[in-house]
Amino acid sequence: MAKFRLDEVDHQILDMLIENTRIPFTDIAKKLLISAGTVHVRVKKLEEAGIIRGSSLTLDYQKLGYSFIAYVGIFLEKTSQTKFVLNRIHEIPYITVAHITTGKFNIFCKVRAKNTKHAKDIIFMIDDIEGVSRTETMISLEESINDKNRLMHSIFNDL
Amino acid sequence: MAKFRLDEVDHQILDMLIENTRIPFTDIAKKLLISAGTVHVRVKKLEEAGIIRGSSLTLDYQKLGYSFIAYVGIFLEKTSQTKFVLNRIHEIPYITVAHITTGKFNIFCKVRAKNTKHAKDIIFMIDDIEGVSRTETMISLEESINDKNRLMHSIFNDL
DNA sequence: TGTTTTTTTTGCATTATCTTTAATAAATAA
DNA sequence: TTATTTATTAAAGATAATGCAAAAAAAACA
Question: Which class is A8-56 in CATH?
Answer without folding.
Answer: mainly alpha
